[in-house]
User: What shape does this take?
Amino acid sequence: MAETRIIRELPSHIGDTVTVRGWIMKSRSGGKISFAVLRDGSGYVQCVVSKADVPKGVWTDFGGLTQEMSVAVTGEVREDARSPGGVELGVTAVDVIGSSTDYPITPKAHGTSFLFEHRHLWLRSRKQAAIMRVRNEVVQAIRDYLYDNEFVLVDTPILTGSIGESAGTLFETDYFDFGTAYLAQTGQLYLEAAAAALGKVYCFGPTFRAEKSKTRRHLAEFWMMEPEMAWYDSVDNMRLQESLIAYIVERCLERRVGELQELERDVALLERVTPPFHRISYTDAIVKLRELGTDAVWGADLGADEETVLANAYDKPLFVYDYPKSVRAFYMKENPENTDLVLNNDLLAPEGYGEIIGGSQREDDLDRLLTRIRENDLPEEPYAWYLDLRRYGTFVHSGFGLGIERTVAWICGIPHIREAIAFPRMMTRLYP
Ligand code: ATP
Ligand code: MG
Assistant: This one.
């Protein structure tokens, strides 16, 4: 009996006869020799069979392989310098496990909506699988970085009573006798409570925004990683963001070279992503944007196009800090030197990817926070517990939210964030 192996292990089994289970990516039969590419999740291997070397039945079975059939292939691992993994499989037996007739996704080009309608199958394609592996690396890099830097993971609730961001973008659901609950748009407020207990904390989970936006950077459900740090001011906050992003990119460059190659990513652009990142105040950014030919006006939030124009003027990520208070959330701390501004930042990725992080120092003064809640016409009652954090041992603290899909899309160099998550939820999509 041949031993069962995964494709990734094959280079260390040259000369052995092994069995590999997987799916047929493509096959090509000739008069004397036939080929198939097998995928098992750990890699890809070319399988070769020559008519003269195998019983007739094996030759016929191999010739009948179709795209995405699941099979167990047995053969000898042979060195083959031209193959990606350096080996090929000289097939001696093939066992069909699951047939596959008329697989919908063929090597010809398909439209985007067709591909998303078949997302459950499209994930099997090389590029999509490569994106998922980069995503996995990004997530693992984040977790490792935070663990090594003494952050404590605190899972915050998805069903919430109070409101984090803007009320217009909330998904609602019935909640027993309490009426309406909302799907979380952020875990931040809860993390602020946890930071007073644990110092440096983070949450990482699905985040829900019912934004009716059909842009290439908005999903209705996305994953956000939010750290919150006691005793960090806005400057410390940006320094952490810079260090974390540089680490994530470095990890992908180190460990996901093959995937980035598969995606035809220009890695030279990623190699530049080292600290320090550029920093510009919102006020200076408006001046710069006008110089660059836009009609940006002080007091309005930066739009996606403006973010692109601005970020294109720099060769690595760009911090834009101290936005007008009027365009930012109530919990951001006022800049003591100019109370029209808050101590916040966005981090803009290069190459037109726009905002990947939004962060701020939080308002730690009870009276100012109450004023902000009232100015924003927010109900006070749901925030009673949040205000307690300023009543009992208030503290300087800051945090941010990093969007996973936007980060993955940027690192992969893909145009739309919907490919950066396995099953995207958008205004226009709930299937599959
Ligand atoms: P934008 O202005 O681009 O809509 P935002 O300022 O509303 O984003 P934040 O509340 O600051 O977003 O959220 C923090 C991060 O979460 C963003 O920087 C982004 O990376 C990510 N993010 C926010 N909304 C979405 C969304 N709808 N889909 C995917 N990622 C998102
Ligand atoms: Mg933001």
About this structure: The mean pLDDT is 96. The longest helix spans residues 126-148. The domain at 119-420 is CATH 3.30.930.10 (BirA Bifunctional Protein; domain 2). The first strand starts at residue 3 and ends at 4.
